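re the bet — no i am not wrong, look at it urself. input seq straight from the record:
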Amino acid sequence: MSFSQKAKDEAAKLMITDEDTSLAELMAYVRYVSSISFISGKVAVSFRVQKAALARRIFTVIRNLYDTDLDVDISKMTQLKKMNIYTIVLNDTDIVMQMFKDTRMEGFLDVNKIPKAVKESDDMRRSYLRATFLAVGSITNPERGYHLEMLFESEFEANEVKDLMNVYGLGAKYVKRKENYITYLKGAEAISDFLTVIGTMRAVLSFENIRVVKDVRNNANRRTNCETANIQKTVDASTRQVADIEYIDEMIGLDALQSDLKELAILRLNNRDASLAELGRLMEPELGKSGVNHRLKKLAEMAENLRINEEN
């Protein structure tokens, strides 16, 4: 099971505490996963979802609020994956109309608008966001990256949910993708905070554990890469220095050098893998890295001048 689905399963099993938070969840389900039908003068509303956990949640929320009968149908998708489709149908016109009134859908004028009651209540905001995530959200496997998104049919919906998320300082944004609009979060901290907001604490702990392991692994890889790069730099520098010293020896001999340069030249030839600091400790008296580097530059300049003179 994916990390995203585990987080959703946890969200779907959280205790339903009171009527207001139940209603806030229903407001999201009505807006994002429902459809309305008119048959022989009667109104019915259907909720169509792909996960059993979400279907059970919607069923429980409606029954808790209205104590009514619901029809449940399970079918197979016609696409290759052959996934189950769960459809929950409320056929009682009177209760349907009451539901529209309670969820601020009465008259179908504010279908996309998040009700004011949700925006003004912390508990209802959290419940609405939890239901929205259950209905249209997903999280990338944190082993691969940090991305959470929710998919909407309209720009207005995406922007409304973005603003609701940002009440908690999450830095949510939205973007158009093909025919839909995506409200999304980037970054581990924002996603962890969102999971905390909607109450999925086991998912938070799992996410943070993956995040810590991933950070440790990445830091170890960075250190290894840095050490490898430093070793390669040392080897490349040593190769150039040895080539310069051997050229000087061939052209004028090392005995022609000042004593301090001759000492360092011989040490470099005999200790080709040594770092500047290690060369400095081998000298009598010991010399710091900057001093060793300064003398090696003198040898490099001397070799370069000898090459120029030879060409002329």
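see?? Strands lie at 34-39, 42-49, 71-76, 84-90, 137-139, 147-152, 173-177, 180-186. told u. also The chain has a mean pLDDT of 88. so pay up
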